[in-house]
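Example 3.2
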Amino acid sequence: MTVCAIETTKTAPFTIAADGSYAARLAGDGEARYPERWTLTGPEPYAVPLPLGQPEEADSEVLPLADGRVLIHRRVAELHAFALLYPTGGSGGRAGAGPRTGELPLGAVSSQDEDGGPDGVRVTLLPPSPDGHGAFALAVGAATTTVWQVTGTAFGPERVARVPGRCSGGVWLDRTGRLLALDRELDGPAGPLTKAVAIDLRRGGEVSPLLQITADSDDRLLLADPDSGLLLIRSDAPGELRLGWGVLGSARPVRFPECLRAVGATATPFAVQPGQALMPESCGVALRVDEAGDGYGGSVAGLALWRPADRHVFRIGAPAGWLGGTGLWSTEGRLHLPYATPEVPCGIIGTNLPVTPPPPLRHSPLPAPPARPVPLQQAPLG
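Structure, written as C-alpha cells:
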C-alpha cells in the first residue's frame, strides 16, 4: 500500500502501546466522546468502544497497556483521577448501547500546587512505558515537577520523582521503563532556559544532564531509540531553531543536517525504526509536517521520511483520516499509520522508505553559524 497525498485535519491524540499490540484514543464528537481501544496484532486491526454511563470530557486522556486495558485520566473537581477500562462482553461494541465497560479506579492526585503556585498543577500522561505495564503522569507546578506512577502500585498513584523546574515532553531512554528524559525549564539570568535531563526512576528520581549543546541554548529531546541510541533533538544552538540528531553516550557532536532544515524546525519526529542495534545512521525516522509550523494541533500537511545516513528527505502526503499524526515502524523498515474514515473506521496503511533519492528540497540559502556542542551525556545505569 502507498500513502495517499491527502491532507488530514486535527484529530484527538492516538496513542500506541510501546510493543505495538494495542492503541487507544478518545473517539466521538462534541458531547458524545468515549474511549476506544484498537487491537493492532493479527491480520486486520479492529476497534472496541469502551463507553461508560456518561460521555467523557474532551480533555480526558487515554493510554493503552500491553494487557489490553486502557488507562484514562480525567479532571474531577480539584482532582486528577485515574482508572483502568476494559471490555466486559455483551453489546459493548456499540457506543450508546449502555455501559458494557468495566472500570477499575486507581486513585487521584490533587490539582493544588505544593509550592503554592496560584494556577495549580498541570497533569498529563507520559508516553507508554516500554515494559508495557507501567503508566506514569507528569504534574507540573510553578517551581517543581512530579512524576507519578499510576499503575502497578499498591495504594494508588505513587510519587517516584520530584524534579526542580518546569518539565515537559517525556521520552523513554531504555526498554525497562527506568530512564525517562524530560525537557526541564529553569529560570536563569537571561530568562528561562530549557535543557533535556534524564531521570532515574529507580534511584529516587536522580537527575542527570542529558543535552548541553551550548551553555545558553534551548535543547529539547523529541524522540529516542533505545536499540541504536539515536536521539532526535530540537535546539537553537546553531543560531536558529533546528532539528538535529545525536547518539546517546557518544562523544561526537550533535549534527544539524541541511535536509532537515528544509523540512522545517517545527516538524515533529514521531516514530523511529527499531532493532538497528549500534546502527543509528540506518534507522528510518518519520516526521509529521504541520501547516504553518505550529506543531501538533494544526492540520497535517504531510509526512517526511529520512535516515541520518541520507542527505535528503522524502516528502509524501498524509493519508486521509490519519489519527493524531502517529505511527509505528517495524524492524523490517515498514511504517504503519493508523487512520479512520467513514468507509474504514479502523485501518492501518503502510509504506516503505523509498530507495530512490528525490530532488533536493528548497531551503533558505542563509548558512547556519557553526555550533560548538558538548558531547551528549549518558545517564548513569548503575
